[in-house]
Amino acid sequence: MLRHLIALIAGGFFGAGLFVSGMTDTTKVQGWLDVFGNWDPTLAFVMGGAMIPMALAWLVRERRSTALTGAPLPPPPSRKIDRNLVIGSLMFGTGWGLVGLCPGPSIASISYGGPGLYAFLAAMLTGFAVAPHVRSRLDRVVPAE
Amino acid sequence: MPIDWIWGLIGGLLIGTGGAIYLLGNGKIMGASGIIGGLVDGSGLDTKWERILFLLGVAVMPVVLTPFYRSVDTHITDNWYALVAAGLLVGIGTRLANGCTSGHGVCGMSRLSVRGFVATACYILAGGIGVILFRHILGVI
Description:
The complex is a heterodimer of chains A (145) and B (141). Chain A has 145 residues and is mostly helical.
């Protein structure tokens, strides 16, 4: 129960932040990526601002053995740079640049994004569904490692 | 516009606070693609209510805040080919890479994760090239 309440509150902060920062406005995202056009620095402030509480949380994490709900805390990050990380991030970035949407803002703007957003969401969810198959196909064609 | 930077910073602090609550409260990394993707491909169904309530919070807060803030125009393109192509690229790409702007960017880089930095460099590079290609060369967006 507490776990669900915490998830709702965390999601609320995330959605509120995406909304007031302007990150659901695709022109602000594309404007930040568009270094040869009319460059918009907002996204750097959003990313920088978000990393402050998050970095503090990682410091607190070091001093705790479990989360508040007693759930295990994430292990130290893997250092493995594999093919899927690079190919996947390049694919993601291409789509991100093309329309200026990433997964968080696509949910935050669900009440006001209109039909274009629903088309994007339908395609993104389809992408999520087929991703495991793409991953295993990639592994068969070019075995990782 | 200076006001946009300030709202960007405030919004960023809120996003990071959400990530901090999710980490220290539930022991989870706040990554939007993983939270949604796990519901879609079935890998996260054991924690489905945690995920659904998180997403509910994300979707509902903008509605709650609209009367106190200003409405946001998403300026989403009406090019449906671009929307569908981008949705597929974002969906498949973030799951292959195991994270997006929130998971690798906000949560990963703030713990100095090498994977977070590499992923972020890759998606910003591809996004920057994408905007040059699709906007300035091809003129489709």
